Protein 1
Amino acid sequence: MVTSLDTLAEFDAFVHQHLAAAVYFGGAHCGVCRALWPKLEARLAAVFPQLALAYVEVGQAQALAAACNVFTVPVIAVHFEGREWVRRAGAFALAELERDIARPYAMLFGEADA
């Protein structure tokens, strides 16, 4: 299940309520965002089942995006235990993102799926 975030308070609560959380910042008028999100969502859910997913529509949540230092889209920020560990912006390789998430995820959950 993907959570939609619109405010900094919602963002902070989401990141701190989950041991592992990924927040995707995208835009309705961004072709790369629209093409990447379904693939990213499906892959992260399959490989990292305990990773909570959230989506931020930057056009509707400009203050949140600015507070998170997101000035371009798409951006994915992955948090472990409330701290940001991985951030990718623009066009990025899913395999590289998975590699960057795999070690801290396995250390936290003891899973070797990734």
Note: The CA atoms of residues 83 and 105 lie 13 Å apart.
Protein 2
Amino acid sequence: MTRYPRYKRVTSAITLALAAVWLGYLLLWPNTNATASGGVPVGGAAPDFELKTVTGESYRLSDLKGKAVLLNFFATWCRYCEEEMPVLEEAHRLYADQGLVVLGIDLDETDLAITAFQEELELTFPILVDRGSNVARLYQIVPLPTTYFIDRDGVVRGKWTGAITRDQLREALELIL
């Protein structure tokens, strides 16, 4: 029987314990409407905010009334966030002429990380930076990614947690377009 050095056993045990805690957190956190998870309720007004892109361009949600808005909260290190980005980019290109505004909201990462992510994935929709994660707290974002669908009157019509597929996105967009 091969015996591993003590530090490897301790490291493995700590890693497994942390993984178990994280998995338990993800499994036990409600993945339902925002009212159940304490977020912004579906059917309620979307809280207003103002954020900037890394280049300093400012966006205020209330200025987008009259347009359908998709808010996607993400982080560049999040694998599921990265997986859904091409689907969001496709929606941005396909539905912009119907009044859809796609806004990515990065949770307080460096400008360099955000710019590299945006360039690597060839994203053309605006990516806003939530310095201090104040907007994420306002919308009570857990887990990542989380997407809100806001109609032309500023009312939340849907919320999706986790990576969204093309078909799921198309169905959700029907609520706001």
Note: The beta strands are 50-53, 58-60, 68-74, 100-106, 127-129, 146-150, 156-161.
Protein 3
Amino acid sequence: MSPEVYDKRLVNLYSSVLEVTHCPYCNSQKFYRHGRYKYTERYRCCSCKRTFIPSTGTSIHYLKKKVVFIEYAEDIKNRGLDTLRAMCKRLKIAPLTAFDWRHKILASLSPEEFTFGREVICDDLWLRFSRKGRKEVDNPRKHGGKITLADDKNCSKTVSSTDETASMFRLATVGKLREKHLLKVFCGRIKPESKIISSSRNCYLGFVKKMSLNHDDLKVANKTKKAIKINRFIGMNKDLKLWINHKLCGVSTKYLQQYNNFYLFSLFRRFDPLGKYSLNLRFVWRIFTDMENIYRNFITQQTTEVYSVPTKRKWKTTYDYYISSLKMPY
């Protein structure tokens, strides 16, 4: 009998891209080789005694059509995010498959760990609160249109911020933005000597006072030499809003942070779903399968909305995989 032939791209991922540094279940660094599985090595953890392969917990975990997923990931890398219908037509896959694969890839875009510099420009971006994809909900796909101050309670608030070297988009709350939300968003990212350039609304002034930081009003600073940086920052926020409302026809608030991360990575052309950084993240399966609970905790703890109409999809292995609290989407 002739040996089974495997796709060269798939074999290359397992041999050259995927690296085993710790156990995906307990995070232990003590493991040993434990036989083989098809085209790759199998490992066994010395602590929890479980076996795993290099792709366990990653974006290609539990996939039967891994070769088609490689084509799907390369399509996103080259073309960006397209509509699910277009992806299904090009790759001849089912809509639910296209949806799941997209969010597995988006789950690998975890927020980077960094600290802002001396001057931080920040503002909040308003998008309509969306429950797109949830049945038995009135106007679940509502998006776009002119947003006024009267819509304050019905908008998802993304705090956008930038300095000389880094930028960040973080979903803070749904409803009125308060000081506590800003404290959570900027926790560990602001230096004591930093200056905040933002609007003079109470939430920002309270945050600045709490952190004992210097503050400049955004409108006043826009009339100085900093106008170029501020206008570039405002333009970046507008582009993100247009991309979500028009290119994607709205995004569910549940997944909004992941789309924020994708936009930021794409903006600086750093995103490669099949690269070593993205493909070696072993918490992707945990985020993908536990996203509903993560969203529920966000709604109940950080917003004034009422959590309702939960999705019914569940996975038994969700909590088997290790994840650091710093890697949670919200």
Note: The beta strands are 31-37, 40-45, 51-52, 119-128, 155-162, 167-174, 195-198, 214-217.
